[in-house]
Design goal:
Layout (H helix, E strand, L loop, with lengths): L1 E5 L2 E6 L2 E3 L8 H23 L4 H22 L3 E4 L6 E4 L7 H10 L11 H29 L2 H21 L6 H23 L1
Parallel strand pairs: 1-4
Antiparallel strand pairs: 1-2, 2-3, 4-5
Pfam family, one: DUF2537
Keywords: Membrane, Transmembrane, Transmembrane helix
Organism: Amycolatopsis marina
C-alpha cells in the first residue's frame, strides 16, 4: 500500500489503484489528519514554485507524513510505502510489532510497567491485604501447630523459616505491581505477625 499526495488530497494506493479512505479501517481523526496534512503539503508545493520554501516547514511536513504513514500501517496491519511530498522519495513504513497475546493478558491483569496516573484504591487494597494477612496467619499457625505437636518445636520454626525465605523473592518482585502489591502487603504482614505465634507454639 502506498501513501502519497495528489493535488490537495491524501491518497492511498494498492497495486496501482487508488483506495478510498472510507473503505479502509481508519479512524475518523486519522482520515481528517491525512487530508489536513495533504492540504498543507499542497500549499508548501505552491509556495516552493513561487519562492524559496522554508526548510523548516518542509521538514515538518515530511516528518508529519511519516508519522501518519506509521499510523496508517498500524491501522491496516501492513507496510505502507510513504512518498514524501517534498522530496518525492519513497520510504517503507512497517506497522509496529504487536506483543504476544499472553503478554497483553498479563499486562492487563498486572498493570503497566510504568506508574499509573490513576488514584490509589486504598480502601479496596487494604481490605484485600487484611483478608490475605488473615489467611497467611492461619496457614502459618496451622503448619507450626501440626509440626510442633507431631515432631518437635524446632522443626516448626525451621519450616516457618523455609516458608518465609521461599516467599521473600516473589514478594519482592511483585511489590510494585498495581494489583498484586496488595496481596504482597497482606502476605508480608501475615507472615511477619504469625512469627509471634510460631515462637509461642514452638517454645
Amino acid at each position: 500500500m502506498e501513501l502519497r499526495v495528489e493535488g490537495e488530497r491524501a491518497v492511498l494506493g494498492a497495486q496501482g489503484r487508488e483506495v478510498d479512505l472510507r473503505s479502509v479501517a481508519l479512524a475518523i481523526d486519522l482520515a481528517d489528519a491525512l487530508q489536513e496534512w495533504a492540504r498543507v503539503a499542497a500549499a508548501l508545493r505552491r509556495a516552493s514554485t513561487e519562492a524559496e520554501a522554508e526548510p523548516e516547514a518542509a521538514r515538518m511536513v515530511s516528518q508529519r507524513g511519516r508519522q501518519l504513514a506509521g499510523r496508517v500501517a498500524a491501522a491496516v496491519g501492513t507496510p505502507v510505502t510513504y512518498v514524501d511530498p517534498v522530496t518525492s522519495e519513497p520510504l517503507l513504513v512497517s506497522p509496529p510489532a504487536r506483543p504476544p497475546a499472553s503478554s497483553r493478558l498479563l499486562r492487563r491483569f498486572l498493570g503497566p510497567g510504568q506508574p499509573s496516573e490513576e488514584p490509589t484504591p486504598w480502601g479496596t487494597g487494604l481490605l484485600v491485604a487484611a483478608f490475605v494477612a488473615v489467611v497467611a496467619v492461619v496457614a502459618m499457625l496451622a503448619l507450626a501447630t501440626t509440626l510442633a505437636t507431631e515432631t518437635a518445636g524446632w522443626i516448626a520454626v525451621a519450616a516457618a523459616l523455609v516458608v518465609t525465605l521461599g516467599l521473600a523473592p516473589s514478594l519482592w518482585l511483585a511489590r510494585k505491581l498495581p494489583v498484586l502489591r496488595w496481596v504482597v502487603l497482606g502476605v508480608a504482614a501475615g507472615v511477619a505477625t504469625s512469627w509471634i505465634g510460631v515462637l509461642v507454639i514452638a517454645f
